[in-house]
Amino acid sequence: MLPPAASISYRINLFARTAPMNSSGHNQFRDEVVLVARIMLVLLFLIFGWGKITNFAGTVSYMASTGMPAPTLGALIAIFIEFFVSIAVLVGIFTQPLAVLMAVYTLATGFIGHKYWSMTGMARYENEINFFKNVSIAGGFLLLYVTGPGRYALHFSKRG
Fold it and tell me: Which GO terms describe its cellular component (predicted)?
């Protein structure tokens, strides 16, 4: 009989699967998976950023109704980050620093827009879900910061 620690390790390894590796030992589909992840991470922001652009007056009005001190500026910042920064992340321009910006923005909008801790009933439940979705999305952006954009990205280099 195996000692308890070895037994646990054995069970974990038994179910562990690894992605197909290429001849150099790297994940064969790493770059493709990172590209799909970038698309999935920014899709929400592109959709709602575009909505803010096409209904700018409504966006400003909504932000004013939440008590935001400078709703027009807030709407412009939201549009810039949600739409234009997302496009940059999507195509792989300055991906890592922008992934950090997106993580911070996503956490901030969670704390600003989904204050479930001050609500009751169904509103609390719905906002708690959205708050923790924001936390999860921010985690995805932090992972993108660590992994980088992968091969399928527009890269800039300094020319001497």
Answer: plasma membrane
- Looking at the structure of the chain, the number of domains it has is 1
The residue that leads in pLDDT, 4 or 46, is 46
Task: Check pLDDT > 90 for residue 1.
Answer: no
Domain presence at residue 159: no
Does residue 6 form part of some domain? no
Q: pTM for the complete prediction?
A: 0.81
